[in-house]
Specification:
The protein is mostly beta strands. It folds into four domains: 2-135, Immunoglobulin-like (Sandwich), CATH 2.60.40; 147-257, Immunoglobulin-like (Sandwich), CATH 2.60.40; 270-463, no CATH class; 466-596, Macroglobulin (MG2) domain (Immunoglobulin-like), CATH 2.60.40. The chain has four helices and 48 strands.
Length: 598
């Protein structure tokens, strides 16, 4: 059987500034020694060790498998034949990394010892492991590689309001001339990143023959330029202050200006709702959260309306966006086949006649027609924001909807209950559990990958798209099996088992089974003369089954079955499910049986 581990590896430059280790080679090395279990239990931040070239070469003789980190930080590695599921060391070789100003040096380091939790699949065994290398460790490694960066925000002073679309320039104070380290434009949240090298702050008028730098790192000050001119000009002396002098390979900074300049006040694109539930306050979407709604504890299912704020431009240029999902194995795009129709706004135009306004729905996955304009995602899920911006020729008015997501394409389970009858546990068919994903929106200037920014994230979303097949219905009265049930509910009357048309005399014994990881409630009742009647049930559970014998009236008084008037009755059971699409909840699911008394 094959063993495949997938995940994502990124390095933190600051708490909110990170980079995927694109091109790095991850090497899985057989763990040896008598401290393997201790090393596997330790945090990677306590186990990271730089390897000498000879040590790295020697460890390669115990290689179990290797893979290269992709553009989003994702990787997938199949371990060699003979591996049996034990612990291994995770080594990283940086010499193959790409996307930086200077080529990486051949640096290797051991990150951690990992004992994966393997789960069996149709193809073999699979495990997921993702890690963010802490900035204290990653920045030290970047220094060895010759990579230096500044990450920060430009905000309106005394607020948390980010300033988008302004240019930040960084300079190093030097005794002969100040070195320009580089410039960058802030994204929609006011965030920027400037990458540079040692050569950028060690230049002199005589470079490259004579380079002079009095301290180990640059002494940094900044200028911020907007459409109307200079918004912030720090004095050179600011670079000699204690918090700016001799900064290291990663420097994190907060800059502020007095106000957002004109011509940068575009809508702030942001995904922050699933249906009516707002991330953070509407459902527990933070790291380690339940992923379910706050207050009514519902998981999500079926088609989800992802919504927030949509802007036409990013950095003054036409924008496009897409959604991505991560089940623990790295971010993947939501592709067109995973979407459902969703109106994201209205197009309107002044006609100069009657009626004075023409309108059309703007629909992702729509169909062009007299009342509809189609927006078609590309093959990788990117959706170009309509740029119509004139009431004369047409104006696009967003409605806060961003995407219709068919969550069943991210999470679906099928459980066959053909061998289960009322009163039995569904464990033999496999108990359903919620599955968890992260969802985020990313934006970029059309066709420009380097401008991509994250625009809202739900780090934990509970999905419950469970389908139950061959669910028993109507007991022995009219035996039936039904498929594609969102939750399972079955009842039977023991006195009728094997002869469904027999009459009830002195007892009415009900076997019941219900199953769904988000069962809200179950009720069993009898309707007929003198009713309604019901049965008391124990506390609900995801795999709910048992037998009840005592019939009760509306006041919870016991009822003797032998005292029921001679007539026909309906025994019915219903379950409610703690599920939501974000906008609606599923109807109860029923089972029923007819019977007659003596």
């Amino acid at each position: 059987m094959s063993y495949v581990i997938s995940g994502r590896l990124v390095g933190l430059l600051c708490d909110d500034c990170w980079e995927p280790l694109v091109g790095a080679t991850i090497r899985l090395v057989d763990a040896a020694g008598d401290r393997v279990s201790q090393a596997a239990a330790a945090e990677p931040k306590h186990t990271t060790t730089v390897l000498e070239e000879s040590a790295a070469a020697e460890r390669a003789t115990s290689l179990l498998g290797e893979g290269v980190v992709g553009e989003d930080g994702g990787f997938s590695i199949e371990l060699r034949d003979g591996y049996e599921g034990g612990a291994f060391d995770v080594d990283v070789y940086c010499g193959t990394m790409t996307g930086h100003k200077v080529p990486p040096k051949p640096l290797s380091f051991t990150l951690t010892t990992l004992a994966p939790q393997w789960r069996e699949t149709k193809e073999g065994y699979a495990a997921a492991w993702s890690y963010e290398i802490p900035h204290r460790i990653w920045c030290g490694l970047r220094g060895r590689l010759g990579w230096w960066s500044i990450c920060g925000h430009v905000r309106v002073c005394d607020t948390e309001i980010g300033v988008p679309g302004v240019t930040v320039s960084a300079f190093d104070v030097d005794w002969l001339q100040d070195d320009a380290l580089g410039s960058a434009t802030t994204d929609v949240s006011g965030h920027f990143r400037i990458d540079y090298t040692v050569a950028d702050f060690s230049r002199t008028p005589w470079s490259p023959w004579i380079n002079i730098e009095l301290v180990a790192g640059p002494d940094v000050y900044f200028r911020v330029d907007g459409p109307t001119g200079v918004l912030l000009q720090e004095p050179r002396s600011r670079g000699r202050a204690q918090d700016r002098q001799n900064v290291g390979p990663c420097f994190c900074v907060e800059l502020c200006v007095e106000d957002v300049p004109g011509d940068t006040d575009q809508p702030y694109p942001w995904f922050d709702h699933i249906g009516v539930y707002k991330t953070v306050t509407g459902f527990d979407s933070g790291p380690g959260g339940t992923g379910r709604t706050i207050g009514d504890d519902r998981a999500f299912y079926s088609a989800l309306r992802l919504n927030g704020v949509l802007g036409r431009l990013l950095g003054g240029q036409p924008a496009e966006y897409r959604f991505e999902h991560d089940d623990g194995s790295g971010w993947k795009p939501v592709l067109p086949a995973q979407m459902v129709r969703m109106q994201i706004g209205t197009w309107e135009r002044l006609t100069g006649s009657l009626p004075p306004v023409e309108t059309k729905a703007v629909v992702v996955l729509g169909a062009n027609g007299p009342d509809e304009i189609a927006v078609t995602p590309d093959a990788q899920g990117w959706i170009a924001v309509p740029q119509d911006n004139s009431l004369t020729t047409g104006l696009f008015v967003p409605n806060n909807n961003l995407l219709g997501l068919d969550s069943r394409t991210l999470s679906s389970q099928t459980h066959d209950l053909a061998a289960v009858v009322a009163g039995q546990s569904t464990a033999s068919a496999g108990l359903a559990v919620d599955e968890y994903v992260a969802l985020r929106m990313v934006m970029r200037q059309v066709g420009q990958p380097s401008t991509q920014v994250q625009a809202g994230i739900a780090e934990r979303v509970a999905l419950a798209n469970t389908a139950y097949d061959h669910v028993q219905k109507h007991g022995s009265w009219v035996p039936t099996r039904v498929d594609d049930q969102l939750g399972a509910v079955s009842i039977d009357i023991e006195e009728l088992i094997g002869h469904g048309c027999a009459r009830i005399h002195n007892s009415l014994t009900v076997d019941y089974t219900a199953a769904q990881p988000n069962l809200g409630s179950m009720s069993i009742g009898v309707s007929g003369p003198g009713g309604p009647y019901h049965y008391a049930l124990p506390a609900i559970a995801p795999d709910f089954h048992g037998t009840v014998t005592q019939l009760l009236d509306a006041s919870n008084n016991p009822v003797a079955v032998s005292s029921l008037p001679k007539c026909s009755y309906i025994l019915s059971a219903s379950i409610s499910l703690l599920l939501t699409t974000g906008d609606s909840t599923p109807l109860p699911i029923y089972d029923d049986i007819a019977f007659t008394t003596q």
